[in-house]
Amino acid sequence: MNTKLIFLLFVYAVLLTPGYSQTGTDLWILETSGKGGNLKILPETAKKLTDRPEYDNQPSFINEHQLVFSAADENGNHDIIVYNFESEKFTNLSKTDDRSEFSPRITDCGMYIAAVVMEEDKKQRIWLYPTSFEPAELLYDDIDSVGYYDWYDNKAAMFLLGEPNQLIYARGRNDLLHIDSGIDRSIVKRPKTSEITYVTEVSGDEPGTIKSFDIESGAREVYLEGLKGARDFIWIDKKHLLMASGNEIFIRKYSNSEWKSLGEIKSDTHQKITRMAYSEDLNVLVVTMDRI
Q: Residue 15 belongs to what H/E stretch?
C-alpha cells in the first residue's frame, strides 16, 4: 500500500470515527407544542441538559421518559448514559475502560440498547447492551468499520467506513444488501414504512440529498435537498423531517421543496445544532450543540 493511500485512510478514519469532535458538545432541551406539520418549538424554553467540556452527543429516546446518549469521560473514553426525564437523573448503562460506545439507540425488540463500539483493536462493530444491565453481546462478528446505523425488522442498516462509504442492510449472515455508496452519517428509518432514509455525502457548505430505499420493495426515492452543510436529520412522523442550520431548526414535509424555520436557539456559549431527538410523548426536542 503506497504512502498516499495510507495517509488518506488515516484521515478518513479520524474524521468519520463516531466520536470525532473538534470541540466539546452538550445536549440542550426545548419544549414543543403541536404535532407533525403543526409542530412548534419554544426557543425561550431552551436549556442545557449537559454542561461539560467533554463530548455529550448522539441523543436517542428509548421510551416515553428516557433518553440515551454517548458521553466521554475526562480520559476520552465514551460510555452510554441514560437520562430519565421523570427523576431527572443520569445513569451509566456502560462504564468500560477497554472500549468506547457511540450512537446508542433502542433495538426493535426493545430489550437492548445497541451501540457502535470501538474495541481495543480499533474495530468498530455493533454490540447489544441489555436494558436489564446484563453483559453486552456482539451482534455481527463478521461486520467491521461500522460508523452509524438504524433498524428495520430487527436487522441493521449500516454505514460502513471506506472509500467510498457504503450503506448496507444485513438480511442475514453472509447476506448483505448493498443500498448505496458515498453517503454521510445520517441513517434513519422512516416511521411506519420499510424505508431506510439517508443523506448523500456533504461537502463543505453544499447540501446533501436525502434519499430513500425501501427494504421490502426495493423502490428508491429522492426527497430533495437538505440544508446547506447539514449532515443530520430526523423524522418526527411519517411525513415530516427536521434539520438544522447554525442555531436554527427547520421543518419540511417530505414531498415539499421548502424548509420552514421553527425558530432559533439564542446562546452565547453554544453554536451549531447537529444531532436531534424528538419525543412526541414528552413534547420535547433534544439537540446537540458545539461549545464555543
A: helix 3-16
Q: How far is the C-alpha of 20 from the C-alpha of 23, rounded, in Å?
A: 9
pLDDT tens-digit profile of 217-272? 999 999 989 999 999 999 999 999 999 999 999 999 999 989 999 999 999 999 99
Alpha carbon of residue 280 to chain centroid: 18
- Given a contact cutoff of 8 angstroms between Cβ atoms, the answer to whether 48 and 267 are in contact is no
Judge whether 290 and 280 are in contact, CB under 8 Å: no
Whole-Å CA distances, 26 to 31, 58, 236: 17, 10, 22
Interior angle at CA 18, CA 13 and CA 19, nearest 5: 100
What is the spatial order of strands in the sheet that 183-189 belongs to?
Answer: 183-189, 195-200, 207-214, 220-228
Q: By CB neighbour count within 10 A (0-12 exposed, 13-18 middle, 19+ buried), where does 173 fall?
A: exposed
Cell numbers found for residue 46: 431552551
Low-confidence spans in the chain with pLDDT less than 50: 1-22
CA–CA separation, 102 and 290 (whole Å)? 17
Average confidence score pLDDT of the chain = 92
> Using an 8 Å Cβ cutoff, are 155 and 176 in contact?
no
pLDDT of residue 128: 98
Is residue 273 within a helix (H) or strand (E), and if so which, with residue range? strand 270-279
Is residue 149 within a helix (H) or strand (E), and if so which, with residue range? strand 146-152
